[in-house]
Amino acid sequence: xxxxxxxxxxxxxxxxxxxxxxxxxxxxxxxxxxxxxxxxxxxxxxxxxxxxxxxxxxxxxxxxxxxxxxxxxxxxxxxxxxxxxxxxxxxxxxxxxxxxxxxxxxxxxxxxxxxxxxxxxxxxxxxxxxxxxxxxxxxxxxxxxxxxxxxxxxxxxxxxxxxxxxxxxxxxxxxxxxxxxxxxxxxxxxxxxxxxxxxxxxxxxxxxxxxxxxxxxxxxxxxxxxxxxxxxxxxxxxxxxxxxxxxxxxxxxxxxxxxxxxxxxxxxxxxxxxxxxxxxxxxxxxxxxxxxxxxxxxxxxxxxxxxxxxxxxxxxxxxxxxxxxxxxxxxxxx
Length: 334
Ligand code: TYM
Prior knowledge:
By secondary structure, this protein is mostly helical. The protein has 2 domains: 11-188 and 300-330, 3-Layer(aba) Sandwich (Rossmann fold), CATH 3.40.50; 215-296, Orthogonal Bundle (Tyrosyl-Transfer RNA Synthetase), CATH 1.10.240. 53% of the residues lie in helices and 7% in strands. The longest helix has 30 residues, at 301-330. Ligand 1 is lined by residues 14-17, 25-26, 29-30, 48, 51, 136, 139-140, 148, 150-151, 153-154, 157, 188-190, 199-200.
């Protein structure tokens, strides 16, 4: 288990954008880890609404999605008694430390980031998109976490975060903990159901490429049935030779807790159709309680807002302490 490298006092932080649909890639690669880790460590979970606006957002939709995501995270098992769940925009220290990091990051380091290159289109890009990674570094370093559980698409941002922590510490004296990424071995990159060479993504053009946490049982069965497979008919875990089946095995492994090899052995001699049907039923069964809790939470938005407000209060305390220590070392008059 990924958390063996941590000790009991470790702090964990991660974040997620309130954009599009939460899908099983987000859940298995990130959210499920957060839920598992909160039994042992203090976990800060941040909804990255300031990051969301680096691409244009419809105000009404942003609000609805932000609150829906908070409910989904709670329904997945984030427990406000053990974790601090908050909105990034409720803690001004993020933007302030992000600004400080902007002044310490050469332009070339930001222009090289894969996400910036992918998301800037022919018309160019806004400065917010360029500065996305320095804000993410601030999100993380304000809480002095030892580990950041994420999917492997966040590795490049984590590398820059670690570099900024070291750069600041070297220049102004020991201030920030240099955090480690925590990435699940096979669930760290769940691939699209329609194309196993692309990661499952909420911004995918085709909805059949991902399974959303709130998909109905019939939608789930249909999407798994239509998922692309590889040639041959053996159920074997071989990501390079059989990437599509390996992806489905990885999904079954992450939902069931069995290893990829155990999943493959259990389905040895069965055809793709039977394996897919078992997988669809497993996903339906695992998502049902999450969906039911989500519906109950959605009936009481005030309760969710209260959790977010309390979370922000706790988060501000830690964040302001770190920010002030950094500013003092830099020579700001406090
Ligand atoms: P976001 O909102 O795109 O994704 C949230 C988390 O889900 C993981 N993930 C996946 N894991 C496995 N397979 C997939 N197909 C898959 N798709 C997404 C992501 O790796 C992520 O862990 N920049 C971040 C948000 C952020 C953040 C932070 C994260 C802002 N500040 C500070 C950590 C720490 C993002 O856009 O994640």
